[in-house]
Amino acid sequence: MIDFKALSAYAAAFTQSENDLLRRMEQRASDLYIPIMQPSAMAFLQQLIQWTGARQILELGTAIGYSSIRMAIAAGQDAQIITVERDEKMICEARQNIEALHLQNAIQIVEGDATMHLPEIEKAAPYDLILIDAAKAQYEHLFMKCAAMVGKGGMIVTDNVFFHGLVCNIDAVKKKQLNRLVKKIDDYNHFLFKQKKFDTIFLTIGDGMAVSTKNSDGEECCLEKK
């Protein structure tokens, strides 16, 4: 059987960040276990932004600003990225990284809990693309919040939907807390599949990625398929 982690590492070897700061951020994240997107997933997301011409982007889960920076680079001039983070230390480091690359006009950090009501992000809607990369146990709740903030053809991208491949063998996860989390992610994947207003594909990139494209307008954004 092919090892999922080994395959991800193989794919990552063919990607390269745009500058030294991003490469240092990757190393720091690896050393300190800071959650950032895997290189192959990030490279695909950049391509997706370029293919679709996404300019108005929302990110839930800033961490040290890695994804925000790379999305801003991919989106180019006139892009507006709003990113949400609640950890003050992460916010401080993200701001430093964003300013070091002179991207503070393109990237706005909103301080707060992505699961809560945040007027700043709602006022900036609709978004071309929303990246969900925070509070994995709250993925379904976050998707419900985001569904109304993308227009027809807009996308919601969710990272870590395979969670190190554990969703394929949940019963083998013996730690109770981890088992509950993996079950929640598996439930979320099934939830995505049932959405009438979104067409979702699951990609074996990085730690697993779901790309959900809104296919029609309407008040009820999260109805189950029959």
* Relevant CATH superfamily: Vaccinia Virus protein VP39
Q: What's the number of structural domains?
A: 1
- List the strand order in the largest sheet: 3-2-1-4-5-7-6
Q: Tally of extended strands?
A: 7
Query: Count the helices. How many?
Result: 8
Query: What is the CA-atom radius of gyration, in angstroms?
Result: 17 Å
Q: Mind describing the biggest β-sheet?
A: 7 strands, mixed
CATH topology: Rossmann fold
Structural class designation: alpha/beta
Do you know the CATH architecture? 3-Layer(aba) Sandwich
Which spans of ≥5 residues are poorly predicted at pLDDT below 50?
Answer: none
| Shape by Cα distribution | globular
Question: Concise description?
Answer:
The chain is of the alpha/beta class and 226 residues long.
Summarize the structure in words:
There is one protein chain. α3 runs parallel beside α4 (about 65-75). The protein has helices at about 5-10, 20-30, 40-50, 65-75, 90-100, 120-125, 140-145, 175-195, and strands spanning about 55-60, 80-85, 105-110, 125-130, 150-160, 200-205, 210-215. β2, α5 and β3 form a beta-alpha-beta unit. It has one domain: Rossmann fold. It has eight helices and seven strands; from the N terminus they run αααβαβαβαβαβαββ. The protein starts with a helix and ends in a 12-residue tail after the last strand. It catalyses: 5-hydroxyuridine(34) in tRNA + S-adenosyl-L-methionine = 5-methoxyuridine(34) in tRNA + S-adenosyl-L-homocysteine + H(+). This is tRNA 5-hydroxyuridine methyltransferase. Belongs to the class I-like SAM-binding methyltransferase superfamily. Cation-dependent O-methyltransferase family.
